[in-house]
Design goal:
Number of helices: 15
Low-confidence stretches: none
Oligomer: single chain
Distance between the termini: 28 Å
Strand content: 5-15%
CATH class: Alpha Beta
Order of helices and strands: HHEHEEHEEHEEHEEHEHEHEHHHHHH
Number of strands: 12
Helix content: 40-55%
Structural class: alpha/beta
CATH topology: TIM Barrel
CATH architecture: Alpha-Beta Barrel
Length: 429
């Protein structure tokens, strides 16, 4: 198996930091023991935690106005896998990638799998793109894909999803995420009723092509690119469609796909209770679908989401969940952002494991508002970096991944062998 980052480099760097880490870890261990919390039990859960990296995430994103690419940008799926392998060699919790088709189409998917296998990288959920026109035919998604009034366009969109499933089967994936940008920009442009009927009709055809052990994840979004109305605009619509499709259809929660001030953690709880929570796209936002680094704006919200997940798992209500980062890196090195985001996600998960949920339940039943909030705040305000860092160290990854990454001059070196990327237009490479 190839290593994108030389193991000796990681080991030598860790040797300089392990003494301080041991001291910090022991200090936190003693602190947690006072509350009868076993630090090693928590550490072992973090060692086994995984969150997928989207292949498009290692490229520079953009806005409707411009894209400003950095040096050493990946130009194809093979180069994206190389970048993802760097991330995983440093953090260890990103062993799978989530590809996007047809962006990541290749002529030989078996060859691609062999290539990614050589780096120890597997495949999580695959994604389909029907929000952009592909190919040279005259069938456009301009006025919708799975909901288009033209049946031939709908069939084309269905075929895109079928091909994504076929590619995913070869790569070893077990799921498909479907997000459509279908909707209207003006009152009267589309029929709300007919568009939803067409969506369900189209999704049933896609659903029938799922392998027995696969799931399909329905992703909602309140607006953009359709700004007046969006067909799958909220978790309720997503749930209705998932229920209509069947047991293999689940709802996907993207943290940026909610209007400001939405209580996302409550939505998560509702979908768990309804047995339809399938996965997450982790990012952060200030105003809308900003796709900023996870935990960069509102880490407390991220903690509260994991609080619901950890509680549900304790109560035996949590099914298998797909975790993925979904970010657009406009002004940062995407690799650095994804390293930091994976760490932030791990930190919030760790903090949720500190909560005494039995005590929390007692406080809630006693209507002790301050006590309950204080219990959560205490866990959130605990510095659990020593646990997450020790988990990386014991998994032979980096105690300080950003420091090592910067020492590699990775992008500078890749710029010598990769074609330069142009930035005159908007969007993701």
């Amino acid at each position: 198996m190839f290593k994108a980052v030389d193991k000796e480099i990681i080991n030598n760097h860790n040797l300089k930091l392990i003494s301080d880490l041991n001291s910090d870890f022991d200090h936190l261990r003693k602190k947690l023991e006072r509350n009868k919390v076993n630090i090693n039990d928590i550490k072992n859960k973090i060692k086994n935690f995984q969150v997928a990296v989207p292949t498009w995430g290692v490229g520079t994103g953009g806005t409707r106005f411009a894209r400003f690419p950095g040096i050493g940008e990946p130009q194809n799926i093979y180069e994206k896998i190389e970048d993802c392998a760097v991330i995983n060699d440093l953090v260890g919790i990103t062993q799978k990638v989530s590809p996007h088709f047809p962006w990541d189409n290749v002529s030989d998917f078996k060859e691609l799998k062999e290539f990614s296998d050589s780096f120890g990288i597997g495949y999580d959920v695959v994604n389909s793109n029907t929000f952009q026109d592909q190919g040279e035919d005259n069938l456009s998604f301009k006025y919708g894909s799975l909901t288009n009034a033209d049946q031939s366009v709908r069939e084309k969109a269905i075929q895109v999803n079928k091909e994504a499933i076929e590619a995913g089967m070869t790569l070893g994936s077990k799921g498909l995420t479907v997000w459509v940008g279908d909707g209207g920009n003006f009152p009267g442009q589309i029929s709300f009723s007919k568009s939803l009927e067409r969506y369900i009709e189209s999704m049933k055809k896609i659903y029938s092509n799922l392998p027995e052990d696969w799931k399909v994840y329905l992703e909602h979004k309140p607006y953009e690119p359709a700004f007046y109305s969006t067909v799958i605009s909220d978790w309720g619509t997503s749930y209705i469609c998932a229920k209509e499709l069947g047991e293999k259809a689940m709802c996907l929660v993207d943290l940026g796909h909610h209007l400001p001030n939405t209580n996302i953690e409550m939505i998560v709880s509702r979908l768990i209770d309804l047995n339809k929570l399938g996965g997450f796209h982790f990012n952060d936002s200030k105003f809308g679908d900003d796709d900023l680094d996870a935990g960069s704006i509102n880490p407390f919200e991220l903690f509260l989401i994991f609080n619901e997940l950890t509680l549900a798992n304790k109560n035996g209500k949590l099914k298998e969940i797909s975790y993925m980062m979904d970010q657009s890196h406009n002004v940062t090195d995407p690799i650095e952002s994804l390293i930091l985001s994976s760490n932030e996600i791990a930190l919030c998960f760790t903090k949720s494991l500190l909560v005494d949920y039995d005590h929390l339940n007692e406080l809630q039943d006693a209507n002790d508002t301050i006590g309950a909030m204080q219990l959560l705040k205490t866990a959130f305000n605990t510095d659990v970096n020593p646990i997450v860092s020790m988990a990386r160290y014991e998994n032979s990854n980096a105690i300080d991944p950003i420091s090592i990454y910067r020492s590699l001059n990775y992008k500078q070196n890749k710029s010598k062998v990769r074609k330069s990327s142009k930035g005159s237009s908007s969007g993701i490479v």
